[in-house]
Amino acid sequence: MRTAVLSLGLALLCYLHAEAEELGAAGLDKSEIAGKWHIVALASDSESYLQKKDELKMAMATIAILGEGDLKVSFAIPSPGGCKKRESIYKPTGVPGEYHSSDRGNKTVQVVDTDGKTYAVIFASRVEDGKTLHMLRLYSRTQEVSPEITTLFKTIAREKGFTDEMIKMLPRQEECSVDGA
């Protein structure tokens, strides 16, 4: 019985991953990623992230589509000093699902997985002090994600070279929102 449940769970995970790949970057409809998102999980190889990851809480983002395919991303990030709000403009790179921003350093982001409705997995790279840093984020339309999507995120994180110590499911918070950003 236990083996059957595990097999069914693995089959569902494989199905979700295959379906998401079909809808992933190549088939991405930008209108599907527009709107309000909760950043419910992170994985990063940044030293500062690793030092502070236990203090982090769920952040929020709003994605708006601008002319010529640019994306305006507004963030609300809870911190000990209050709610930090930021905005960045990301321009398409020519690679499907990939965008670049020169705001606050050079950053490239890519939608690596999405179902087009409830979640998106975003991989970001930036160069800081001559070193390339990587971050994987799980975006969700709600503050809670299914166990299957959590497992999918962790699987993708491991495939990208992140260890379990680098992966963090973020606790909920209510005090910091993109509304009015």
UniProtKB/TrEMBL annotation:
Pfam families: Lipocalin (PF00061)
Gene Ontology molecular function: small molecule binding
Keywords: Signal
Domain of life: Eukaryota
Annotated ranges, domain Lipocalin/cytosolic fatty-acid binding: 34-172
Family annotation (InterPro entries): Calycin, Lipocalin, Lipocalin_CS, Lipocln_cytosolic_FA-bd_dom
Keyword Cytoplasm: no
Keyword hit for GTP-binding: no
Range of residues in the leader sequence: 1-20
Family classification: Belongs to the calycin superfamily. Lipocalin family.
Protein name: Lipocalin-like 1
Source organism (scientific name): Columba livia (Rock dove)
Lineage, broadest ranks: Eukaryota, Metazoa, Chordata, Craniata, Vertebrata
Chain's gene name: LCNL1
